[in-house]
Amino acid sequence: MQEQTESFSKPGWQRDWFIVRSLVKKDFKLKYRGSVLGCLWSVLTPLLMMCVLTAVFSAFFKFEIEYYPIYLILGNVLFSLMGDSTTSAMNSILDSASLIKKIRIKKIIFPLERVLFQFVNFLFSLLAVVMVIAFFQIAPTANILFLPLLLFYVALLSAGLGMMLAALAVFFTDIVQLWKVIILAWTYATPIFYPVSILPDWMLVAEEFNPMYHMITYFREIVLWGQTPSLTENLICLGMGALTFIAGYLVFNKTQSKFILHV
Fold this sequence. Notes:
Layout: H1 2-9, H2 12-31, H3 41-60, H4 68-90, H5 92-95, H6 97-102, H7 109-135, H8 147-171, H9 174-189, H10 201-207, H11 211-223, H12 231-255
Helix pairs in contact: 1-2, 2-7, 3-4, 3-7, 4-7, 4-8, 4-9, 4-11, 7-8, 8-11, 8-12, 11-12
């Protein structure tokens, strides 16, 4: 209690960082409360999904992808990171309504903390990726050093969408259900479990505007294919992430003063 009192008395970023750390710890306790395996579920879930989807798509579809389980798990864990981050951030203001009414606190902390929590949780999912890569004896290359840069791009995208959705959900609660449909459609519209080569021309054009297509391809390049991402690909990922972040911040910042009237 004394630590909390001292931390809340500190100005600026120190107080904000204390709040973020406290919320992340709380989210971990809530996520794994009552679970025997705890954080291991973040490792087991992508592995189980990979096994099921590999069995299904290998049996019903005839396309050939070298090291398909790795191809699949890379796309799945990265898309899940974005999907989980944005969905969690979308509900952050509504879930924290009682706290917002009681304490004067920067509201932007809530969606950003949810995104941070999902990224911390993502580190456990990476263990599943490492296990699959080790099983197929794929030697990592120096291109794996681009991973932090890729995660920065995904963080910008997720935080931007998360802030925008969090603001909209306060005024239009239907957005919560609508986003579930959008995420599902987005999943199938992104080459996660199928090769991009099977897409018709019009969808190939559409994929150029799909940020997760670029970021998942980036992930596969540095981990599976051992390729160095081009400057153009880096600029595309950075541009899409940055523009989304700016748009999300502007929407959130413009509407946050009215949250108290609707939560």
